[in-house]
Amino acid sequence: MTYKPLALITGGSRGIGHCLVLSFLTDTDVLNVSRTPAQETGGSARCEPHELHNLSVDLADVALIEPCLRTWFDAHPDHRVTTLIHNAAVSPLGWLHELSPDEVDQAFRVNVYAPLSITASLVRAARFATDGARVVYVTSSLARPVPELSFACLGLYSMTKAALSRMALVQSREFALTAPHLTVARAHPGIVDTELQRDLRRHPRMDPAFAVKTAGLPPFQAGEWHDRSPKDHMRTISAEFSAEFIEWVARTPDATSEEYDFYHAEEFHAARRDVRHR
Ligand SMILES: NC(=O)c1ccc[n+]([C@@H]2O[C@H](COP(=O)([O-])OP(=O)(O)OC[C@H]3O[C@@H](n4cnc5c(N)ncnc54)[C@H](OP(=O)(O)O)[C@@H]3O)[C@@H](O)[C@H]2O)c1
């Protein structure tokens, strides 16, 4: 290999993204993109000799993304992206008839236009590893076009995640036609105990049906899924557990563009059980 492999992760300053940063640092250099820098502390992982780089960008400033990435890669000409994880997102809350045009614009900028711009910039600048790279879009079950996952107050968030998910599918097809060394995967990370989830649960105008759904999801306890399937016993999981799943999606050799759902990924949970029993 003549290049330095790089994992580019957005939203690594906290939550699931921070756990992803720490985990990837154990075997590759990482470039985090968020407004606040990611710290190397907070995990048990020893990171040397891999380097953590931070690019402080407000992803709402979509026009700045391509020039910022170009400047960073010009200064790091040996790096090639082997994994790109689009994890950063905002969770704009409010009923649809109350949202201002600016709120709608801001949400689509961060959750949809920015991921599109980052992937496109790397393609245009030929910064993906040519012997294989994976792009993972972190989606949400709230993107699915089904009535039971359509909650008042979560409309704009759901709309942006639906657009992201659809974009990922079309991009997967485009890569299959023109750049088969690039593969796209979509991952629903589970219901995760992070700031984003806490904001949703404490919002005063949240759909009561969402409160009922989340009240039925107590925190996961180790061992609970030893002989019960996660899909029938859903739980709120930690950011570490969720990141472990997303990393599994990123590293699964023959991943397809079908959405990987934390609670339905039998292979992931079985592989974890096998490691524990070894
Ligand atoms: N938590 C859940 O239950 C859940 C469920 C389904 C899907 N998800 C998805 O999982 C992903 C991670 O969620 P999380 O719960 O870990 O979220 P989180 O704790 O709120 O973290 C969000 C991350 O996104 C970054 N970000 C937000 N706005 C940004 C901006 N304008 N520019 C640059 N970076 C920005 C933040 O960094 P800065 O503030 O430093 O910029 C932060 O690092 C998201 O895509 C979310 O939609 C989460």
What does this entry show, briefly?
The chain is of the alpha/beta class.
Folded structure, characterized:
InterPro entries: NAD(P)-bd_dom_sf, SDR_enzymes, SDR_fam. The chain has 278 residues and is α/β, with parallel strands linked by helices. The chain has one domain (4-191, 239-265): Rossmann fold, CATH 3.40.50. Helix content is 41%, strand content 17%. It is built from 8 helices and 9 strands. The chain has a 7-stranded parallel sheet, with helices on both faces. It has a two-stranded parallel ribbon with strand order 7-8. The radius of gyration is 18 Å and the shape is globular. The two termini are 32 Å apart. The model has no long low-confidence stretch (mean pLDDT 94). Bound molecules: NADP nicotinamide-adenine-dinucleotide phosphate. NADP nicotinamide-adenine-dinucleotide phosphate is lined by residues 11-17, 34-36, 58-60, 87-90, 110, 138, 140, 189, 191-192, 194-197.
What proportion of the residues is helical, as a percent range?
40-55%
Radius of gyration based on Cα positions: 18 Å
| Number of discrete domains | 1
**Would you identify the CATH H-level superfamily?**
NAD(P)-binding Rossmann-like Domain
User: Largest sheet, order of strands side by side?
Assistant: 3-2-1-4-5-6-9
* Average residue pLDDT: 94
* CATH C-level: Alpha Beta
CATH architecture: 3-Layer(aba) Sandwich
Question: What small molecules accompany the polymer chains?
Answer: NADP nicotinamide-adenine-dinucleotide phosphate
Here the CATH topology equals: Rossmann fold
Q: Which parts are unreliable, with pLDDT below 50 for 5 consecutive residues or more?
A: none
User: What's the multimeric state?
Assistant: single chain
Shape: globular
Largest sheet: 7 strands, parallel
Structural class: alpha/beta
Along the chain, the helix and strand elements come as: EHEEHEHEHEEHHEHEH
Strand content: 15-25%
End-to-end distance, in Å?
32 Å
DSSP helical segment count? 8
Q: Please give the number of β-strands.
A: 9
